Structure formats: C-alpha cells, structure tokens
Amino acid sequence: MLVVLLVISIVIANSFIIFSNGSNRFYFAKLTTSVTSGIALALALLMVYKYKTKQDKYVPHQSPIRENIMHFSICIFLALWFVAQLTWSFYEEQSPAPSVPDILWLIGYAFFGYFLYRLLYLFRKQLEFSNVAIILMIVTISLTYIILIILSVSNLLTVQKQQVSVTILTLGYPVLDAILLVPAALIFWVRRNPATFEHKSSAEQQEDISWILLSLSMILFAIGDSGFAYISALNLTIQNDVWIWNLFYNSGYLCLAAALTRYATFLDFTKVHAAC
Q1: What is the pTM of this model?
Q2: Long-range contacts of 172-176 (CB under 8 A, 24+ apart)
Q3: Residue 58, exposed/middle/buried by CB under 10 A (0-12, 13-18, 19+)?
C-alpha cells in the first residue's frame, strides 16, 4: 500500500510539470518541488516527534545526545532544503556567486550526511570490507565521470577569475552527493536480501522497503543535482530545461517522505542505544 500511494503521489506531482508548457511548466516545476519538500519536512517533524514519544514511553530517561542529534538532523536538513526551494521558487534574481539558497542547500548536506552515517553506524557489524570497497569504487568512478563531463562542456575554467567560485559551486554539488551516496548505498546493501524477503513478516517487509526508499531518495537527489550542474556548465536557458530535473527532486522528496512514515518503527531502541 505504501509503494502504491508513493507511485500515485509521484505521478500526480510530476504530471503538473509534464503536461504543462511554456511558463506554466516552469511555474509548476518550482511549485511542486516546494510542496513535495514541505511534505517531506512535515512528515519528518511528525515522525521524529512520534519516535521520541514512543521512546520516552518504553525507554524513559535514556536519550543520548548523539541520538537526539541524529533525529533532529533529518529535520534540520529538510528545513534548510525547504527554505532553499522556496527562495529559488519565488526570487528570480540570479547571482554569479553562491547565493543564500545555495549556502542553505550545502549546509543541508552536512545534516543529511550526519543522519546517513549515523544510520550506517548502526549496521557496522554487518558491513564487509569487500562490499565497502566495491561501492566506494563505483561511486568514485561515477563521480569522476560526471565531473569530467561537466568540465568538458563548460567554459568556466577559461573565463575571468571572479567566476572560479561558480566553478567550485557547480562541481561541489556532485562531490557532496557522492559523499552521501556511499552511506545510502551501503545501508541499502546491508538491508537487501531478496531470497528471504517473501519469508519475512509484513512489518519486516515494510521495514526493508523503507530502507530502500531512503537510499533511492538520495540517488534521485544526486541525479537532480548533477543535472542542474550540467545545465549550469552549459549555460542553458533555465526555464527551458530545469523542469526535467525537478521531476527527480519531486520523486526524491516523496520517496524520503514515504520512508519516514516508518521512522517510529524501523529504528530498534535497543540497537540505537547500543550504538550511541
């Protein structure tokens, strides 16, 4: 049911963009991304509150500071990205240097990264060196390929020195995405087990699906960021091309929102407290 509702939500949100044209498409691209990021933020706040309430009921007065930071980091991350999306949506002026929403977006990476790496820490005993090495190699090769593409089509390195900051910003997004893709991919790797999925209880299957959606959301964000970086490098007209990448952001926010609906149940109290 969760997956069905997620697919329906993604189709509805993205249909406003796909079936519009001209300025309407650009308007709906900005609007839907702001709405989906707001939905993800609202669910994060609700589910963290629900988790903390459940925790206080069953494990009272046992809330390590690092655990609280982990829970609140996902909310702060989404709050920063939500404000950044609103700013991009309602203020048209373009800045040659990193703008305020750019800064908010980059700070958001730090909080989301902390959340993902703390989650990965819970599964550290299930990680194998060979798996970590393979995923690191795949992410590194993909990142290198993306950067080479962006640099090969860009003239940013050959223009005035004041545009170096733009180059750094353009390349910064895929680099930070790659850093976050590592824990997201590893979390998915340790949780996947197709052979035993059918033999698990309904609750366990829903838990596995939530972890998959969490990882998928990061992948979708990375694709969207890389697309925007590519467009910026080509100096293409934003109104004509940006909507394509908003489809990935909408899907990413909704996948993350769907994953967070199980937040109060897919974190085991004993495991969390042992790790913290």
Answers
A1: 0.83
A2: 172/106, 173/225, 173/226, 173/228, 173/229, 174/143, 174/146, 174/147, 174/150, 174/222, 174/225, 174/226, 174/229, 175/143, 175/147, 176/106, 176/109, 176/113
A3: exposed
- Greatest mean pLDDT among 107-116, 150-159, 229-238, 259-268 lies in 107-116
What is the average pLDDT score of the chain? 78
Instruction: Calculate what percentage of the chain has a pLDDT beyond 70.
Output: 72
Which pair of tokens denotes residue 124?
A: 């550290």
Q: Do 80 and 104 form a contact (C-beta atoms < 8 A)?
A: yes
- Given the structure tokens 């926010």, which residue do they identify? 253
CA-to-CA distance for 209 and 203, rounded, in angstroms? 10
What confidence tens digit (pLDDT) does each residue in 187-223 have? 888 776 554 445 566 666 677 788 888 889 988 998 8
| Residues 189, 245 contacting (CB under 8 angstroms) | no
What is the structure's pLDDT at 41?
95
- With contact defined as beta carbons under 8 Å apart, do 213 and 242 qualify? no
Which tokens is 259 given? Answer: 């994953």
